[in-house]
Design goal:
This protein is of the alpha+beta class. It folds into 2 domains: about 80 residues, Ubiquitin-like (UB roll), CATH 3.10.20; about 80 residues, [2Fe-2S]-binding domain (DNA polymerase, domain 1, Orthogonal Bundle). It is about 30% helix and about 15% strand. Strand 1 and strand 2 form a beta hairpin. Helix 2 crosses helix 5.
Length: about 160
């Protein structure tokens, strides 16, 4: 079936099998290989993209279900040659080692910065906790890094959140 979606600000119309995941559409049909296929079960976060500005696991979303919506991949975070502040902070803080999880971490962090409200570690639900290191760790807990670069990832996100 034919679907149209906005990918990194551009309308893309493609014929797809109704069973193809958004991740496979992005990687195999549109050549956007930033989002990674880590577990293909929604457990690692390597495939995280922004769907209408909110974090989404692209391996769990059917491409047909996102017709007409805006998808932002790690390739779409930068503005031309200007890196997104998170991308620059990840470089500055050495927030990656092998880099496999980095695209998902970046998209997840970008979405997280715009998400209001408390998390599971918020002590007082009546106040805005801000993005403390504990809040960042909790909110990013769906994105795994096998290299263990978490300390630097939290530092990079903290810098941008300030």
């Amino acid at each position: 079936m034919e679907i149209t979606l906005q990918v990194n600000g551009k309308a893309r119309t493609v014929d797809v099998d109704p069973r193809i995941s958004l991740l496979d559409l992005l990687r195999e049909r549109l050549g956007l290989i930033g989002a990674k296929k880590g577990c293909d079960h929604g457990q690692c976060g390597a495939c995280t993209v922004l769907l209408d500005g909110r974090r989404a696991l692209s391996c769990l979303a059917l491409a047909v279900a996102v017709e007409g919506r805006a998808v932002t991949t790690v390739e779409g975070l930068a503005s031309g040659d200007d890196l997104h502040p998170l991308q620059a902070a990840f470089i500055e803080h050495d927030a990656f080692q092998c880099g496999y999880c980095t695209p998902g971490q970046l998209c997840s962090a970008a979405g997280m910065l715009d998400e209001p409200g408390p998390s599971a570690v918020t002590e007082d639900l009546r106040t805005d906790p801000g993005l403390t290191p504990d809040e960042i760790r909790e909110r990013m807990s769906g994105n795994l890094c096998r290299c263990g670069a978490y300390v630097n990832i939290v530092s990079a996100i903290s810098e941008v959140a300030r």
